[in-house]
Specification:
With about 500 residues, the chain is mainly β. It has helices spanning about 130-135, 205-215; strands at about 5-10, 10-15, 35, 50, 50-55, 70-75, 85, 100-105, 120-130, 150, 170-175, 180-190, 200-205, 260-265, 270-275, 280-295, 300-305, 310-315, 320-325, 330-335, 345-355, 360, 365-370, 385-390, 395-400, 410-420, 425-430, 445-450, 455-465, 470-480, 485-495. The strands form 5 sheets. Strands 27-26-25-24-31-30-29-28 form an 8-stranded antiparallel sheet, with no helix packed on it. β28 and β29 (about 455-465) form a beta hairpin. It is elongated, with a radius of gyration of 25 Å. About 40% of the residues are buried.
Length: about 500
């Protein structure tokens, strides 16, 4: 049916479209699978055959565009075959550059309409290509730079993939030249098995943190029992673990709680995170994200996950994965805290499907943050009074909280607004928020509309309470001026 790779004794990585019903999005029944390992000829001995106890589809898999085309098969009995390492960002990023020599492998068909099923593993050399090569309108489906890799084998174009190769690996030597890493997994080809068209792969480095999460969650506690050598599913074993199961307390000697602030991507956009007072749950995240569209346009949007009743556990290794989905936007933020507790880093990936510019994406954006507050308060609401904040550009922001500490009633800030025809204005405004504003919890978002004294505009913001006297968030304002509609873009701020 498909190919795959062993990434842990009881976990096999394959393509998402190999593991679900494309029409409904429902995962295939685990009992329908038999996974063969241990021989390049899957019909010959010696070999190992495992049943599947669980099918896990990558949460960001888009079955219409095939972005995030990945899935895991959790084996009922482990294989003794050595696992392959997945490429990681940024250590293996050089391997993703155009011109890198690689190998693609799989048990796929060797011609469009074969007479017999392929029994022996096929492998072939290929070469990484620039994204523009796969973005040609001559190809039947779009190519999404930042989420996918594109290869072919010039100048004679002798190699490619065919039906059954899906989920198979794209392999290369690591930067040190000492080990093999999997750069991607086969997602699709063009031209129905023609080697004159490129092959498209799901990037391994984008799913690596998700894979690690599941590998750790389903890791066998004891040595696996011998595996039957007949091609039939073994009895199912119920897997009760789940990703990020159960928070682990902060390791001794480290203070993780409080605000973490840092930068995101080459544009040095802002990211902020809050870890709760117990030190083992991430309770807020806010960031400024740049999406690049196929049309060449850039879209800057605030990304925030601020809630009164939701948080994300840090695992024993102090890592986390948060997924955002709102309308046509899908984002995943993965991160980890280093062993010293001094730095947090990770990657952000996202897509934004717009009516005007089509599909826009961030690619794999690295971020890092450092601890900026010693400890966080367990308070569930903002304290009454004024909060004096500062933007990255040095402008001042003042937020006023009513005496009962439940509502934001005043906002003052100064910022540069960008206007049509390259005009700009530096505007200072004070906003009084409506009295019927909903309760201001520890984390939340707000919108203020104002049309008075010659000002017509709107402010969208986020508010994250780290302690009774420490907050951070974002602001985004638009206003109608003598130059027309002007906007600030997203302004990160913190006390």
């Amino acid at each position: 049916m498909c190919s795959g790779t062993v990434i842990a004794p009881n976990v096999v990585l394959t393509a998402g479209h190999c593991a679900e019903q494309i029409a409904t999005g429902q995962p295939d029944e685990p009992s329908g699978y038999a996974v063969v390992t241990g021989n390049v000829d899957w019909t010959a001995s010696p070999r190992q055959v495992s049943g599947v106890s669980r099918v896990v589809i990558y949460p960001a898999f888009n079955r219409s565009s095939l972005i995030g085309d990945a899935a895991l098969l959790i084996l009922s009995t482990s294989t003794t075959q050595p696992p392959l390492a997945l490429a990681s960002y940024p250590s293996d990023s050089r391997l993703l550059e155009a011109g890198t020599s690689a190998i693609v492998a799989g048990w796929g068909e060797t011609e469009k309409e074969p007479k017999d099923v392929t029994e022996r593993l096929q492998w072939a050399p290929t070469v990484m290509q620039l994204a523009g090569f796969c973005e040609s309108e001559a190809f039947s489906t779009p190519f999404y730079e930042g989420y996918e890799l594109c290869t072919t084998y010039p100048p004679d174009f002798e190699t490619g993939v065919c039906f059954g190769d899906s989920g198979g690996p794209l392999l290369a030597l690591d930067p040190a030249g000492s080990d093999v890493v999997e750069l991607g997994l086969v997602s699709r080809g063009y031209g129905e098995c023609s080697t004159h068209y490129p092959t498209v792969f799901t990037r391994s480095d984008l799913i690596a943190s998700w894979v690690r999460e599941w590998v750790n969650a389903v890791k066998p506690s004891l040595q696996a029992t011998p595996i039957p050598s007949i091609l039939s599913p073994v009895p199912e074993q119920k897997i009760t673990d789940a990703p990020a199961a159960g928070p682990a307390g902060a390791p001794a000697g480290r203070r993780l709680e409080g605000v973490w602030r840092g930068t995101l991507g080459k544009e040095a956009k802002s990211i902020g995170l809050v870890i709760g007072s117990a030190g083992h749950r991430l309770t807020a995240l806010a960031a400024t994200v740049v999406y690049r569209c196929r049309s060449g346009h850039l879209i800057t949007e605030p990304l925030h996950r601020l809630s009164n009743d939701e948080s994300w556990p840090l695992t024993a290794t102090d890592n986390f994965t948060i997924r955002f989905s709102a309308g046509r936007e899908n984002d995943t933020v993965a991160g980890a805290i280093d062993p010293t507790g001094a730095r947090m880093s990770g990657t952000l990936t996202g897509t934004l499907d717009t009516q005007r510019y089509g599909l826009c994406s961030t690619g794999a954006v690295p971020w890092s943050a450092r601890h900026s507050v010693a400890s966080a308060s367990s308070s569930t609401r903002a304290a009454a009074g004024s909060y004096y904040a500062q933007t990255d550009e040095g402008d001042r922001i003042v937020l006023g909280v009513v005496p009962d500490g439940k509502r934001l009633d005043r906002l003052e800030f100064s910022a540069v607004y960008e206007c049509p025809r390259h005009h700009s204005l530096h505007i200072t405004r004070s906003f009084l928020t409506p009295r019927n504003r909903r309760t201001l919890g520890r984390f939340g978002a707000f919108t203020i509309h104002l049309e008075e004294r010659g000002y017509r505009g709107r402010v969208d913001g986020t508010f994250a309470l780290a302690s009774k006297h420490t907050v951070f968030g974002t602001l985004k304002a638009i206003a109608f001026t003598r130059f027309g509609w002007c906007h600030t873009g997203v302004i990160p701020w913190a006390t």
